[in-house]
Amino acid sequence: xxxxxxxxxxxxxxxxxxxxxxxxxxxxxxxxxxxxxxxxxxxxxxxxxxxxxxxxxxxxxxxxxxxxxxxxxxxxxxxxxxxxxxxxxxxxxxxxxxxxxxxxxxxxxxxxxxxxxxxxxxxxxxxxxxxxxxxxxxxxxxxxxxxxxxxxxxxxxxxxxxxxxxxxxxxxxxxxxxxxxxxxxxxxxxxxxxxxxxxxxxxxxxxxxxxxxxxxxxxxxxxxxxxxxxxxxxxxxxxxxxxxxxxxxxxxxxxxxxxxxxxxxxxxxxxxxxxxxxxxxxxxxxxxxxxxxxxxxxxxxxxxxxxxxxxxxxxxxxxxxxxx
Length: 324
Ligand code: 6MZ
What we know:
GO terms for molecular function: adenosine deaminase activity; metal ion binding. With about 325 residues, the protein is α/β, with parallel strands linked by helices. About 45% of the residues lie in helices and about 15% in strands. Strands 1-2-3-4-5-6-7-8 form an 8-stranded parallel β-sheet. It is globular. The model has no long low-confidence stretch (mean pLDDT about 95). Bound molecules: N6-methyladenosine-5'-monophosphate.
């Protein structure tokens, strides 16, 4: 039996992060920093705000609105983006695809929210080795007009930094009404990633989205439990973004050892290992996720290097900007 790859070795790998929600990726340290700043101003943060490590999917979804309050102002959003980018780079990430839901706040329009992030990416990209691209999220709770507005921002963007659109949010809610909007984005060469089969319900939605054939699937935790979905995945080979710690904390997989990752890897489906919401998931990082994959699935250093390479191959990096 070979030794698992150590955390130190995992840290040195040139990693690619494809599934990181901005507001879920804000570290506990940055949340503390923002709470301190906001203590001196008027933003409405519940007085009983406590950052709790969630232990179920429901708790995760209760935390988001609280954290999102902290990034309602441009200056705070800037701090959050810069800290998240710095933390990923310090962990050895060379390419980051950050995703976020554009929000209209008291202080910014949706477009201004996106512009603050793009400006931070541009500024830091000059100084850093890590490349960062942005994916705009549609939240399942939104209506079609809101989704269209987000898609329009991505389609009209001429910075080359917005490379995709994704669908996320509470997985219990059906997202198929967004398919025409997603198709429009796809026609403009934006990459499309869909959170799919994160819970066992919604089999019709899963089927409709498999037929739509997104470029990537987020989580896909329950896909392997249905033989028809497995048959379609074998044919279409849609890449999966798998978030080991997130799945176990949300209790959609019992243990990492029981994750769906090896099932799909053995079938030759392209896999990216990702963090999802590192701030909410025990302040985890991508190196630890790689180490866990090595410990639980017996992956060698070569296997992990191949996952880094595959992740870049399935990234949306070259969707709108061919220069690296
Ligand atoms: C589904 C998730 C998610 O967009 O404000 N989000 N959606 N499943 C998950 N797994 C646990 N984790 C995060 O980041 C927070 C938003 O990302 C989505 C949710 O819509 C959440 O409101 P932004 O930067």
